[in-house]
Write a structure and sequence with these properties.
This protein is an all-beta fold. Helix content is about 0%, strand content about 50%. The mean pLDDT is about 95.
Amino acid sequence: QVQLQESGPGLVKPSQTLSLTCTVSGGSITENYFYWSWIRQSPGKGQEWVVSITYSGSTYYSPSLKSRTSISRDTAKNRFTLQLSSVTPEDTAVYFCARCTGLSIRSCSLGQGTQVTVPS
């Protein structure tokens, strides 16, 4: 059974870059045909898809966040990393990494999530 574990700082100052890593066990991030994704949920809001990287390394970005987002992977360590630049308090959320079968959140199995706070 695949397990996903998010790691990274819980507090990021405004204008800085948020960096989170998802370490995967029980499955390979190069395994056909999965999408490895970041999803976030802000207080009082629904889940929001942020970015995905596929088993082959293709990337897909949320249009609203694309200019500030990057995703990378380390296949040797079986992990992938989100970077979100120029953060504001509106980026405060629980960030989940996920294994998905497509670009729909409904196709995803999420990790436990990690709280990231950007103070005002």
